[in-house]
Amino acid sequence: MRHYRLFMEALWRADRRRFMVVAVGVLATGLLPAVLMVASGRVIEAITGVVTGDQDSARRGLMAVAWFVVFSLLMAGARWMTATAQAGLSQRLLAWVEDRLATAVLGPATVAHLEDPAVMAEIDAASEASRENVYYWALRGFVQSSTVRLTGVVSAVVLLALSWWAPLLLVAGYAGLLVAYVRWEQVSADDLSETIATSRRRSEYYRELLAEPAAAKEVRIFGLAGWLDFRFGSVWLAAMEAVWRRRGRVQRLLTLGTLGLVAVHVVVVGGLAHAALAGTISVAAVAVFVQAIAGMDGLISAQYDSLGVAKAGTALARLRTLSTRLEQSSAAPVEDADPGPCAVELRDVTFHYPGSKRAILDHLDLRVEPGSSLAIVGVNGAGKSTLTKLLAGLYRPDSGAVLVDGKPADPAGGRVAAVFQSFGRYELSLRDNVTLGAPGIDDREVEKALGLAGAARLGATLDTPLAAAYDGGTDLSGGQWQRVALARALVAVERGAGLLILDEPTASLDVRAEIELFEQFLEVTRGVTTILVSHRLSSVRHADRIVLLDGAHVVEDGTHEELMTAGGGYATMFTLQASRFAVGVADAG
Ligand SMILES: Nc1ncnc2c1ncn2[C@@H]1O[C@H](COP(=O)(O)OP(=O)(O)OP(=O)(O)O)[C@@H](O)[C@H]1O
Fold it and tell me: Which chain regions cross the lipid bilayer (predicted)?
């Protein structure tokens, strides 16, 4: 019942007007068959009268035929009206669901929820329901099942004219089978249930790795196809086996229910035949009652259709849980920020990733003066990227505060521009890939930013789609993509971002290109608070200040010269890199 309630509520909210039209259509198409049954009885009665020579029967027969035609036309009209409104309503429902899902997922300012397995399971279940057209089938099923169910009820009323026990017996038979079907529905809805959602998501991931281009190269080189196929199959089977076992049990119950229903039909039809042979009811009445017995089948055949409603209801329930869960962490409205470079401060910040016990940052204090540049260095996994994501407001600290201009860091505040390690490679035009950083800028500004980022000669016009799969599209090399991402960050800075975060922004560039780029970049970004993460210490040395991150703490802090003089970890790393580079150059020579 909860599924029905949720489904009705969603339909109502998606499109009230069409919902009402469908409801009226269902009422009409569900009730009219009973009227047609009675009208057909009248026609047969008149025909029998004509055969037996009753003079008045022909006139009554004509009237009955006229009524029959009128009701049949009404029925056809109601069907047409329902089908048309239903098509529109199912589209509106899908749009409403998608909208709710997008609102829920985009609500929180941070991205931590996208790494929470429980949230991801809910997002997946809701998206899968849309992909599999669950809502379309549910509405179709709902309309059909409500119509035939209504016909079933009015048929039972018609059958009361035969005897009080005939409809009661049939209702009892249908009720028995209904119980079995309801159990069946519940078991089928388990396909989407929380218990197996995680395993399904995992198996889906293996399937994607097998089928999608992203992993295609490594799948071939490492010969992973067989292994992935096996993992996909075994995870999926493990998830589904429990569901199949439950289905097996319910199938036995269904068989029992079906046999019971056959038995009550034998009794009722036997009773009808007995009355007809005994002459206690007319041929016309037999015809009406036979139709009524068949019409009562709607009480159970409807169950096949309402399976879809159960699935949609489950998906809607999960969508509701998701919305409630994410509402609690939704972003506060963005306030107007002051222009100019940002002051950045981490105050006693401790941070763990969701579900992990390891503190990536542990009671960390750090202050960056407005307009200055800070480089963060450290070994792999030291927490440099994590620190930048906290500064961007994409994660919230477990304790302490990350403040940008004295307010908690907020990615939606319009003050942060960033090039992260996993920056976006959008399958859009070159222009769009840049203007996403500052919507509304003109082509001159786009070209200027591309020039500054060293991306003036990509072999693409501003209109070229950056994806080979599109007409006239092209793909870029890793370094070229990085330059486009830099151009995007640059336009955001031009448009007022006061904090620029660059996490390995030049990792894919060759050494010469990197040096050239940094020279230009530092010029352009002068006056903007810049946080730079890089393993290339030759680039880092130009920053106003450098911190070395190790063991969740800042262990060294100063200018390049100060850190070199101190002779600590930074100096060792720098000397090592410089000597390696010298050896590399000598070898090349
Ligand atoms: N989304 C995540 N969920 C859980 N743990 C994570 C996540 N991202 C990073 N980590 C862990 O946090 C630690 C710090 O990662 P981070 O990416 O900040 O390091 P880093 O210093 O930037 O490393 P690198 O130099 O390799 O880029 C790593 O041990 C990593 O395993």
Answer: 21-44, 64-82, 150-182, 219-238, 250-269
